Structures
1.
Amino acid sequence: MFDLPQLGYEYDALEPHIDTETMKIHHSKHHQAYTDKFNAALQGYDDLLQKSAEEIIKQLDGVPDVIRKTVRNNGGGYINHNFFWKILKKDVEFKGEIADAINAKFGSFDKFKDDFTHAAATLFGSGWAWLVLNEGRLEIMQTHNQDSPLTERKIPLLCIDVWEHSYYLKYQNKRPDYIENFFKVINWEKVNELFKQAKG
């Protein structure tokens, strides 16, 4: 069975960019619901319960048809949020190997920010924008709903949740303002660590 992870910081740690009440509801209500429904779907499937949540999502084709949609939605929601919380922290400097790689790939941080912002702002409906490593190359991508880059064999390095529940209390329909402030709470130390791990 899978447990709701602790954030590792207080709900108000990202103020004023992401507000306390949003963090509390997002983690304790939305993420908890994905966790509970994921666990419920896996009841009786002992072979799946032997795997990590990430392994299950990577191998969705191996999940029985009768639960695959529920696992895709709620297992995806479970792992996407697990990942999202880890890459959030205020006032972390953009530096390290990941900074060098982003500058090399996109030409500058500002160009990367523009491209990532475009992916997040133009995603229709609910979903995520990601920076991933795809066969050793950095790539920005979108996923709809709770789909994960892992299903496409891509390695997540950074993401932004653009479901309305992640920003609506503070920003209402102003998704671009939320995205702009997201760049003030990226834990580049963690992203750099993930990048180095992914490169092996």
Note: The mean pLDDT is 97.
2.
Amino acid sequence: MKQDSAVVFVIDDDPSVRDALDSLIRSVALNVQSFATTEEFLLSKRPEAPGCIVLDVRLPGRSGLDFQHEMIKSDIRLPVIFITGHGDVPMSVKAIKAGAIEFLTKPFRDQDLLDAIHVGIESNRLQREASAVAEKLRSRFAALTQREREIMRQVVSGRPNKQIAAELKLSEFTVKVHRGHVMQKMKAKSLADLVRMADSLLSHTVKA
């Protein structure tokens, strides 16, 4: 699994913990950016690369759990791994339910943290790839004319050209031409391919 461009963001107010985590993470050839507070992290310029956050639960001011919810509201889609010296079961359940990858109580094994980091990075990598594909589909769909969008909806619902022509009061030839334009603009290689694209667009709530 190639992760040389990935970045791990460490947020912990204890300098000795930050230094230890920095050394550990760099020992497996991953990039690290460390912060004493969540405010520092938010003000930083983050690279466009897969990553995850190693976050202390108890921080001055805003807690790690509060920041996790703020990330969700702000659409910061980086997986979170919590570390704490004062964890309890209700706290860990709350964090995991909110989407945390792992909740580790100090002292934890280095390998447990590294395993969680690799899971987080791979999860973020897949999410970023899916988002990039969805963005390309949105761009192609936006390039369709209103008539082409109507034709596309009819085609992916399984209606034959003759039925589409009758419903839209067009000639079959015109429907075939529009259908060809749809296939070309959406870069669909087959009807099945176009149907998959339509499903993906729908799942991302894209509307004409």
Note: Strands lie at 7-11, 31-35, 51-56, 80-84, 102-105.
3.
Amino acid sequence: MSATGWQRGLYLLTPDESDTARLLARVEPVLGEAALLQYRNKSAGPVLRHEQAAALQTLCARAGVPLIVNDDPELARAVGAAGVHLGEEDPDPVAARRVLGEHAIVGVSCYDDIILARAAAKAGAGYLAFGAFFASPSKPVQSRRASIALLREAASLALPRVAIGGITPDNAGALVDAGTDLVAVISGVFDAPDPLAAARAYRHCFDASSATTGSTQ
């Protein structure tokens, strides 16, 4: 995945914080363990979102971690983020690339639907996100539940795959073994008693997978 400018591993999503200084204080200690960071704050207004995204972009630039902005290509462009993550009600990848350029990272939520994934791939998505795989604090009731078989099926689309939804260091291994390139996490890191140790545990799931793969070749 070197051509994308990022590697397999932990995809951190920011917790909702109305205080920008506190948000940065929570993100900075764990940022070095992440392959990507997504800024996501559904409750913030446009002024706060711009302030927080710009501050996170500065932090990410120092750490060498690409910043992805949830839902908003214009905000991503305004703060110089690496890309955007789109849901089914957001602009499509073609429209997002018109705003951000052809080299931006444009991720698309495909939920539990391989047809959505195929359409996103055809439209120029840079990665495909599937979930929820398990119940999570951010979405305790989730009618769309993705399967490991779906992850394997999506390999045919030849794009990086992201797994999201209730993923812990204990259950991430099965997803990594099925081919997921990134595990997306909010509370699993930021609500952990030791967020840095939790982030390292997620990353280790990929290290262990790589070691196992190497030992069998």
Note: Confidence is low (pLDDT under 50) at residues 211-217.
